[in-house]
Amino acid sequence: MIEKNSKEQLATFAGGCFWCMVKPFDELPGIISVLSGYTGGHTEHPTYEEVGTETTGHLEAVQITYQEDIFPYQRLLDIYWQQINPVDDAGQFMDRGYSYRTAIFVHSEEQRGQAEASRQALQASRRFKGRIVTEILPAGPFYPAEEVHQHYYKTHPFDYKMYRKSSGRDDFAEKHWNTKEDLRRLRERLTDLQYEVTKNRGDEPPYQNEYWDNDREGIYVDVVDGTPLFSSRDKFDSRTGWPGFTKPIAEGLITKEADLRNGQVLTALSSRLSHSHLGHLFYDGPEAEKLHYRVKSASLRFIPREDLKRSGLERYLNLFD
């Protein structure tokens, strides 16, 4: 078993084409690096062409260096399962062959236990028809892929988007991870307004929402999955009737995309891990960068500073030193 050190650990996942397996993990808080490469085979220092012949025994994989206390292994597993078809043992999506099979390569017995429990839970959920065939294997030598394959989504953005779209990976994920049952359960947990805002980009009235004038110290988390998103230290009076922030706790937790509804050109904000709508980004903030994250109260849950420890968020207490 490989261990980086007590603070930085390794996680290794095979999920088909490694071009598509970097971005889901990259630039999240606690993620040090995401490296594309080859592992699980019987040859040393294989090339992309050699692995593609299906004679080396290697799988395309990504190896993640991460900080467990900031981004736990369980959350990595949650992301991983949503990237793959775990009942396909002959490849992934349009990429066929042994080198495109799925596997979790574990670096410790603790990781093995979490991975096995996660796989069992996924099987029991009946989210997929058939048996989960993703193997859980001991991690061995990992050989980094050629430079052209590293962070392909950044270096070849157009090719990456075209390839990913044509692969069917995103359509598969939407079908299996945004089901009617998922939405029903979410409706049971949220108020009508919270559901309308987070899932349908609904509106909430200014000055008549929970946090527009909240001045207590604490953390604002995603109301859907509890991800810490904003700190009270970065909150300001935007004079709009909605909470305003100059920045998120970590940029990697926020997704920005064009919003062309209602004849306006706006930048919509979403929580990256839950895909929940948060609000919009404007450029009239009080800091030098002029950033103004206008966020709807219904998309957030506030945890006061004095409750952070009991909520398992004590690592954020240093924001208030």
TrEMBL record:
<dbReference type="InterPro" id="IPR011057">
    <property type="entry name" value="Mss4-like_sf"/>
</dbReference>
<feature type="domain" description="MsrB">
    <location>
        <begin position="183"/>
        <end position="305"/>
    </location>
</feature>
<keyword id="KW-0511">Multifunctional enzyme</keyword>
<comment type="similarity">
    <text>Belongs to the MsrA Met sulfoxide reductase family.</text>
</comment>
<dbReference type="Pfam" id="PF01641">
    <property type="entry name" value="SelR"/>
</dbReference>
<dbReference type="Pfam" id="PF01625">
    <property type="entry name" value="PMSR"/>
</dbReference>
<dbReference type="InterPro" id="IPR036509">
    <property type="entry name" value="Met_Sox_Rdtase_MsrA_sf"/>
</dbReference>
<dbReference type="GO" id="GO:0033744">
    <property type="term" value="F:L-methionine:thioredoxin-disulfide S-oxidoreductase activity"/>
</dbReference>
<feature type="active site">
    <location>
        <position position="17"/>
    </location>
</feature>
<dbReference type="InterPro" id="IPR002579">
    <property type="entry name" value="Met_Sox_Rdtase_MsrB_dom"/>
</dbReference>
<comment type="function">
    <text>Has an important function as a repair enzyme for proteins that have been inactivated by oxidation. Catalyzes the reversible oxidation-reduction of methionine sulfoxide in proteins to methionine.</text>
</comment>
<keyword id="KW-0560">Oxidoreductase</keyword>
<dbReference type="GO" id="GO:0008113">
    <property type="term" value="F:peptide-methionine (S)-S-oxide reductase activity"/>
</dbReference>
<dbReference type="GO" id="GO:0033743">
    <property type="term" value="F:peptide-methionine (R)-S-oxide reductase activity"/>
</dbReference>
<dbReference type="InterPro" id="IPR002569">
    <property type="entry name" value="Met_Sox_Rdtase_MsrA_dom"/>
</dbReference>
<protein>
    <recommendedName>
        <fullName>Peptide methionine sulfoxide reductase MsrA</fullName>
        <ecNumber>1.8.4.11</ecNumber>
    </recommendedName>
</protein>
